[in-house]
């Protein structure tokens, strides 16, 4: 199955592929109305606007490094996942977006293994009874996804960082696929590169995740990027990834829309298709 990810509402409403992913919420903090029948992506803790307006709400390490776009290795701002006011507002937003159908959660989890060491997180950990910090962080994120699943009318998809090595997702982000699988309908892995001058790593990571997630009752999707890529290269990559994944999603900016249209035409996704209709959530 071939999908397209876009922030262009007109392109999303065309339904040019088998499934359309729409950026309803972005890591910039910008939010728009969801598109009916699309998989509407909601940025969870990634919210650059909030961290700029109130830096103290950003996740923080023990040495005081805040998860802001200025921090090394961070491209957007990330709030502390235990911020109660933000969590409540986020769940309300997921319920609003989920009323239209399918939802994909992005920037899900803590923004690195050193986060978050704010006083609130320390208090919550001390009171949790958990044996270690990794277990506590994982329980926090799993509980959030459980609450989010109850607020979505359609299917729920969780985005995972591209690291299939056992235990790394738990240690780095508090994300445990085994714990999340009963709560979501699928996982999506972004394997995005500008132009894809080399492609062996896409094959390696897609294959690794196919093995990592094979025994879980959840679908597996891979996202590619059209940024700077030629149609021939993307068509080849779709063919490579398709052997491992249930769905391949190609993300596009407005300037790359023609490339994505060409890929869809050549691969064959979306022939006669409209935006996927939603189905009842089968998640318990």
Which structural class do the helices and strands define?
alpha/beta
At the first level of CATH, the class is Alpha Beta
Approximately how much helix is present in the residues? Answer: 25-40%
Question: Low-confidence spans: pLDDT under 50, at least 5 residues?
Answer: 270-284
Name the beta content range: 5-15%
Principal-axis shape equals: globular
Count, helices:
10
CATH superfamily: Glycosidases
CATH architecture: Alpha-Beta Barrel
The tally of strands reads 8
Number of self-contained structural domains: 1
Radius of gyration: 18 Å
Mean pLDDT: 92
* Helix and strand run: EHEEHHEHHEHHEHEHEH
> How far is the first residue's CA from the last residue's CA?
25 Å
Largest sheet: 8 strands, parallel, barrel
CATH fold label: TIM Barrel
Task: Give an account of the 3D structure.
The structure is a single chain. The chain has 284 residues and is of the alpha/beta class. It has a single domain, classed as Glycosidases (TIM Barrel, Alpha-Beta Barrel), CATH 3.20.20.80. The protein is built from 10 helices and 8 strands. It has helices at 9-14, 48-53, 84-98, 119-128, 133-149, 168-173, 177-180, 200-212, 231-242, 257-267; strands at residues 2-6, 19-23, 39-43, 103-106, 156-159, 186-190, 219-225, 247-252. The chain has an 8-stranded parallel barrel, surrounded by 4 helices. Strand 6, helix 8 and strand 7 form a beta-alpha-beta unit. The radius of gyration is 18 Å and the shape is globular. The two termini are 25 Å apart. The model is unreliable at 270-284 (pLDDT under 50).
């Amino acid at each position: 199955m071939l999908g397209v990810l876009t922030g262009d509402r007109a392109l999303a409403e065309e339904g040019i592929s088998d499934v359309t992913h729409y950026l309803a919420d972005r890591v910039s903090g910008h939010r728009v109305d969801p598109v009916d029948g699309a998989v509407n992506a909601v940025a969870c803790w990634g919210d650059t606007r909030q961290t700029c307006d109130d830096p103290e709400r950003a996740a923080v390490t023990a040495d005081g490094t805040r998860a802001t776009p200025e921090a090394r290795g961070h491209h957007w701002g990330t709030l502390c996942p235990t911020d109660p006011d933000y969590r409540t507002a986020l769940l309300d937003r997921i319920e609003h977006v989920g009323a239209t159908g399918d939802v994909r959660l992005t920037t899900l989890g803590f923004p690195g293994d050193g986060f978050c060491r704010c006083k609130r997180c320390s208090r919550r950990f001390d009171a949790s009874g958990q044996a270690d910090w990794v277990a506590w962080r994982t329980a926090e994120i799993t509980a959030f996804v459980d609450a989010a699943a109850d607020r979505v009318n359609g299917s729920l998809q969780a985005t995972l960082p591209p690291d299939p090595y056992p235990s790394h997702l738990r240690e780095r982000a508090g994300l445990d696929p085994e714990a999340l699988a009963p709560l979501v309908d699928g996982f999506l892995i972004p394997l995005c590169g500008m132009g894809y001058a080399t492609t062996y790593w896409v094959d390696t990571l897609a294959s690794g995740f196919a093995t990592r997630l094979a025994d879980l009752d959840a679908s597996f999707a891979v996202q590619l990027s059209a940024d700077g890529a030629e149609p021939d290269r993307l068509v080849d990559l779709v063919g490579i990834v398709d052997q491992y994944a249930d769905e391949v999603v190609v993300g596009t900016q407005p300037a790359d829309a023609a490339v994505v249209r060409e890929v869809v035409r050549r691969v064959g996704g979306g022939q006669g298709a409209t935006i996927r209709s939603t189905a009842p959530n089968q998640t318990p």
